[in-house]
Design a protein that fits this description.
By secondary structure, this protein is an all-alpha fold. The protein has a single domain, classed as Ta0600-like (de novo design (two linked rop proteins), Up-down Bundle). The chain is about 75% helix and about 0% strand. The chain contains four helices and no strands. Helix 3 runs antiparallel to helix 4. The protein starts with 7 loop residues before the first helix and ends with a helix. It holds the Pfam family UPF0147. It comes from Candidatus Syntropharchaeum caldarium. This is UPF0147 protein SCAL_000135. Belongs to the UPF0147 family. InterPro entries: Ta0600-like_sf, UPF0147.
């Protein structure tokens, strides 16, 4: 990923990374094998990423703690936990890119 400060390329890469996270959250939200409360929280996380007016790195930093809470839920299926860890890793890269 060519993250460069002050250029349009950085914004484009951040948006692309954010879109990948949102696509993964959509997979969790639409997976009927995932408990409803976890899908609901994933939907809230997606809403925070999409609708916030904060800069992308700030949105990413905010959502990381929500994802941590989600992975600590004892009812989360292992495959979903792995997806959430992947999202958190991508968002950590975004939050420190600025």
């Amino acid at each position: 990923m060519g993250l460069k400060k002050g250029g349009g390329e950085m914004t484009s890469d951040l948006n692309e990374d954010l879109n990948k996270c949102i696509e993964t959250l959509d997979r969790v939200i639409n997976d009927n094998s995932v408990p409803r409360n976890i899908r609901r929280l994933a939907d809230q996380i997606k809403t925070n990423l999409v609708e916030s007016t904060d800069p992308i790195p700030e949105r990413a930093a905010f959502v990381i703690s929500m994802l941590d809470d989600l992975t600590n839920d004892p009812n989360i299926p292992f495959h979903t936990r792995t997806l959430i860890w992947g999202i958190a890793s991508q968002l950590e890269a975004i939050s420190v890119s600025e």
